[in-house]
TrEMBL record:
Belongs to the small heat shock protein (HSP20) family. This is SHSP domain-containing protein. Residues 23-138 form the SHSP domain. The keyword GTP-binding does not apply. Keywords: Stress response. It comes from Citrus unshiu (Satsuma mandarin).
Length: 138
């Protein structure tokens, strides 16, 4: 195997170790599911090892849900010798444009065992009424 073939990833594209880490890192990539039930939009994000005070959930006036936070490095002490560091650290942010039927003033969030659940109730959106236009002329 040549050096060039070792540097190529899937589809013969260049392999970038940093992007590979980001794609595999649950905190930096923040995998999030979004489902719609009859009553609400429900977002579930895996944030292993984080506590609720390390995560921020916001909805801006543009109807965008933003989930963000940071996993910080473990505290170092004098005399510690690190042999390997593989757990991801760093800031993350995910943004989702909410549909018109989301009640953005009634958002609720909870976190348990590193899983964040954000529930946004739905409201009925009035559909525009059809207006019949009279055609004039002969």
């Amino acid at each position: 195997m040549s050096l060039i073939s070792n540097m190529l990833g899937d589809n013969n594209e260049p392999f970038d170790p940093f992007l590979s880490l980001v794609n595999k890192c649950p905190v930096l990539n923040t995998p999030t599911d979004w489902k719609e039930t009859p009553e609400a939009h429900v977002f579930t994000a895996d944030l292993p090892g984080l506590k609720k005070d390390e995560v921020k959930v916001e909805v801006d006036e543009g109807r965008v849900l933003q989930i963000s936070g940071e996993r910080k490095a473990d505290g170092e002490s004098d005399g510690d010798t690190w042999h390997r560091v593989e757990r991801c650290r760093g800031r993350f942010m995910r943004r989702f444009k909410l549909p018109e039927n989301a009640k953005t003033d009634e958002v609720k969030a909870s976190m348990e065992n590193g899983v964040l659940v954000v529930k946004i109730p739905k409201q009925e959106v009035k559909k525009p009424e059809k207006k019949v236009i009279e055609i004039q002329g002969n």
